Task: inverse folding
């Protein structure tokens, strides 16, 4: 099964370089540059760099993933693997996603992610996400737990879901929406044991502070589409600072 890895990028070139070094040299790695001025530097790091047209502020995360997927599919990809730029794939990530896609071709596949703390210490799995056995699959996943850090699906399943909703602009909500879109068309969520990625530590302002306007706007869009509020923790933080 021909596989393409899709990564969207705005800054964090050192993170991308570490991701590139961990991927097989022959894998089709589609790197979507959300900021046109970064294209020359990104091409220097390798991969198949695609420049995203249009404004880059706020970051068009949903549109960037759709453009990356379209580029990979035109190039003949049968399996799409999405990795955030902060994520370094473990040696078995691609093979485990491919095996899972062969066993569950109509599913939305999510691998576990371990978070590297600041300073010295082992990377640890996210406490709110399942960790299946290393060679196992865990079906019946809760679509509300879908995340875009690391996931995979076949080209047929991508078409069935319809890609990311581009009404979401800026940070927050577009991945939760994608999970609900999958659920709405009967695409199950399967957690893939052994498809590990390691999330690299980076300093950042809490999203509720840095992306306040986008989170509020995207939360309203999500509520209009699905009837419930996503990102409850961030919304609570925002509410607490406006009292």
Result:
């Amino acid at each position: 099964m021909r596989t393409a890895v899709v990564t969207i990028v705005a800054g964090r070139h050192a993170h991308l370089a570490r991701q590139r070094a961990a991927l097989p040299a022959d894998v089709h790695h589609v790197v979507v540059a959300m900021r046109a001025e970064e294209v020359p530097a990104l091409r220097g790091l390798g991969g198949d760099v695609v420049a995203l047209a249009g404004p880059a502020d706020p970051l068009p995360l949903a549109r960037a993933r759709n453009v990356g997927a379209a580029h990979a599919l035109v190039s003949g990809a049968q399996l799409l693997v999405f990795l955030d730029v902060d994520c370094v794939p473990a040696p078995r990530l691609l093979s485990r996603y491919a095996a899972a896609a062969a066993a569950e071709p109509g599913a939305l596949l999510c691998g576990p992610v371990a978070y590297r703390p600041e300073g010295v210490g082992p990377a640890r799995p996210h406490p709110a996400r399942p960790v299946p056995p290393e060679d196992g699959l865990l079906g019946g996943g809760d679509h509300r737990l879908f995340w875009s850090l690391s996931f995979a699906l076949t080209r047929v399943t991508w078409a069935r879901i319809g890609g990311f909703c581009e009404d979401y602009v800026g940070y927050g909500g577009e991945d939760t929406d994608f999970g609900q879109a999958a659920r709405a068309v009967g695409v199950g969520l399967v957690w893939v044991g052994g498809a590990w990625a390691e999330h690299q530590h980076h300093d950042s302002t809490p999203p509720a502070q840095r992306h306040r306007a986008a989170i509020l706007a995207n939360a309203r869009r999500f509520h209009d589409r699905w009837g419930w509020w996503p990102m409850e923790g961030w919304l609570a933080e925002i509410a607490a600072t406006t009292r």
